[in-house]
Design brief:
By secondary structure, the protein is α+β, with helices and mostly antiparallel strands. Helices cover about 45% and strands about 25% of the residues.
Length: about 250
């Protein structure tokens, strides 16, 4: 399946280090807040909340922080206008960017994201300008400890998963249809597999190979600016760095 690049795996390893930062916890707390507001505080009946809690634990977010985020949503009777907004645009080298955000001020967020694209020689586009280049999928991260890839693959085929990737970092990445995410996650847990994270992702249908170091630096700068914005939850792109550039930037 397209989109599982060497750079994606390097970014995933980097994310584990970045997860120690308070900014990551703040973003997860915002996801928990929205999940509780939409589906209630009981994770057994609110899969979105359960997935957020799994993500928080995987990022080593303290239990007290998780509890406070849930309590804040329960105890907040005021209507907080937190919106889920998707932004789309093209970065340097014609690379497509898809950005998911949770914001209480769409004008502020749009302005900040537009400025990032401008600084990096890209352009923030209209809704739909790049989303067609990505497939919307479910993703489940499972601990690979004591698991045989081939045996696990056969199990996943039986429960309806689309793909299995070895991240080579102690985890397997299970890809499935959006509507199957909750079902397959529960199947894995019911069969004693250790689910670390379940969420929805966008996978590029095709990738753009980048060989130019200057363009690569601008793409990675744009990626970092977007990911470090408090309102941005996830950033997806369709670039693939050449082996030479992987060595430079990893």
């Amino acid at each position: 399946m397209a989109g599982h690049s060497k750079w994606a795996q390097i970014k995933r390893t980097k994310a584990k280090v970045d997860a120690q930062r308070g900014a990551i916890f703040t973003k997860i707390a915002k996801e928990i807040f929205v999940a509780v507001k939409l589906g209630g505080p009981d994770p057994s009946g609110n899969f979105r909340l359960k997935a957020c809690i799994d993500k928080a634990k995987s990022a080593m977010m303290p239990a007290d922080n998780i509890k406070r985020a849930i309590q804040r949503a329960i105890g907040n009777n005021e209507v907080e206008n937190v919106e889920e907004i998707q932004y789309e645009g093209y970065g340097p080298g014609g690379v497509a960017f898809l950005i998911n955000s949770l914001t209480d001020n769409r004008n502020r967020t749009a302005g900040e994201i537009r400025s990032y694209f401008t600084k990096c020689d890209g352009n923030l586009g209209e809704t739909g300008c790049v989303s067609w280049l990505f497939s919307h999928k479910g993703q489940i991260i499972v601990s690979s400890d004591n698991l045989n890839f081939d045996v696990f693959f056969l199990f996943l085929a039986d429960v309806g998963a689309d793909d299995l990737i070895d991240n080579n970092d102690g985890t397997f990445q299970v890809i499935c249809k959006v509507n199957d995410l909750e079902k397959i996650s529960r199947e894995l847990e019911n069969n004693s597999y250790k689910v670390l994270e379940s969420n929805f992702i966008y996978i590029p249908k095709n990738t753009v190979l980048i060989n130019d170091e200057n363009i690569a630096r601008k793409i990675l700068k744009l990626h970092d600016l977007l990911e470090n914005n408090d309102d941005v939850q996830n950033v997806y792109s369709n670039f693939e760095l050449s082996d030479e550039l992987i060595k430079i930037f990893s």
